[in-house]
Automatic annotation (TrEMBL):
Name of the featured protein: Cbb3-type cytochrome c oxidase subunit 3
Superkingdom to which the source organism belongs: Bacteria
UniProt keyword terms in alphabetical order: Membrane, Transmembrane, Transmembrane helix
Sequence intervals crossing the membrane: 13-31
Lineage start: Bacteria, Pseudomonadati, Pseudomonadota, Alphaproteobacteria, Rhodobacterales
Organism: Paracoccus siganidrum
InterPro entries assigned to the protein according to its UniProt record, in alphabetical order: Cbb3-typ_cyt_oxidase_comp (IPR008621)
Amino acid sequence: MELYSFLRQLADSWALLALTLFFVGMVGFVFRPGSRVAQKDAAESIFRHETRPATADEKESR
């Protein structure tokens, strides 16, 4: 079997399976229970100190 045919079969079968499992895993990771708080915190982090500057204690905790 020549190299091109082997790599083509590998990409058509196992690579497709691996990428599909990776995609399903990432979707599962994003929608796992308990991730809503972390995602909301990350989404709103740029607005955290919009009205007043951060205090020294807030800067040290991050």
